[in-house]
Amino acid sequence: MSTAPRSLRSDSWAVSETAAHRVPLPRAQSPMPAVASGPPTCRRAALAAVMRSAKRSLPYAAVAMGRSRERRASARMGARQGTTRRSLASSLSSVSVPYRRPRDRGLESMSESKRPQPSATVVLLRDASADLELLLLQRAPSRKEPHKPGPWVFPGGRIEPADIVGGDAHSEASARHAAIRETGEEAGLCIEDTRLETISRWITPEVSPRRFDTWFFVGVHQGEELVRPDGDEMVDHRWLSPRETLAAYECGELALAPPTFVTVTWLSAYLRAEHAVRELAGQELITFRPHICRDRAGELFMLYPGDAGYEAKDPDAVGARHRCQVVGRGFRYLRGAS
Q: pLDDT tens track of the chain, all 338 residues?
């Protein structure tokens, strides 16, 4: 039996709740005038604005993949991008937009200095009494701001030489090895037998000073094994439902970078862990290469594949929406028809 819709985030999206499924519904958007993409200096300024909005955690890309230990030697990355098996349309079935992934050749022609560092992130889920929960780890405070609490992130980090499969550091197989290793090192959990499903891939915009190519995996944590943060990189952990995570983000208790925010929003559509993994694994996988641009009114957006304005970098284009809008110090995720 369905219940009355409740708004979790009034300025962004509402949540319709039923006994088995919650579906985020995007708010209707007012018509917006057209705008052309600006020169590189303008794009850099826009990226700086995005980073400022995420300042409660870390710069955009670093939070998405999780910083690697400073003592590790950075892996030298290959020049070829692994081919994705499938693409992700969305777990939000009632507002999904059909999307066919274009062939991705971006990393092949990129200079060494511009190539994103390959990395992996793991979203571990478990079932609670009334909802699924996801694992977040708290990073240690940075040396620059030792009195500021560290951000909360998913387990993950850079792909190291020992993780590389077939000579391709950017491949999904290499990322899977790194995901398992990083989860063991950061959270003290052995997930070698956990079925990990690929749900997205995020590549930081070229204008960013630090770039990452991050594969996102999801899996169900089985058994009674306890999370044990390493005490070095990670100092604490929490199991939270997607709704609790977004509520904590809303009130400023937790900081989420755009990839994490989008992933948690997807997961808020499900009540059981296995259901979430099964549904997300069966959908198309999207390689996110955000286009950061402003509309004529000056509003800042990150456009994603499937958005009507994505190819032209025009947030005012009429049609489907798949984007994050920067709102104050946070983000608003929009997906669906215009």
A: 433 333 333 333 333 232 233 333 333 333 333 333 455 555 556 566 555 555 444 333 343 344 444 434 333 333 333 333 333 333 333 333 333 333 344 444 455 557 899 999 999 999 999 999 999 999 999 888 888 888 889 999 999 999 999 999 999 999 999 999 999 999 999 999 999 999 999 999 988 888 999 999 999 998 888 999 988 889 999 999 999 999 999 998 988 899 999 999 999 999 999 999 999 999 999 999 999 999 999 999 999 999 999 999 999 999 999 999 999 889 999 999 87
Give me the CATH code for the 6-68+76-336 domain, please.
3.90.79.10
Give Cα separations from 275 to 196, 294, 321 (angstroms). 14, 37, 26
Sign of CA dihedral 325, 219, 89, 16: negative
The pTM assigned to this predicted structure is 0.70
Segments of the chain assigned E as strands:
6-9, 13-17, 22-26, 117-127, 132-139, 152-153, 156-158, 197-203, 212-220, 234-240, 287-288, 291-294, 300-303, 321-327, 330-336
Query: What are the DSSP calls for 224-284, one per residue?
Result: SPPP---SSSEEEEEEE-HHHHHHHHHTTSS---HHHHHHHHHHTTBSSHHHHHHHHHTSP
Kindly list the domain boundaries of the chain, sorted by start residue.
Answer: 6-68+76-336
Tokens for 263?
A: 């992933």
Total residue length of the chain: 338
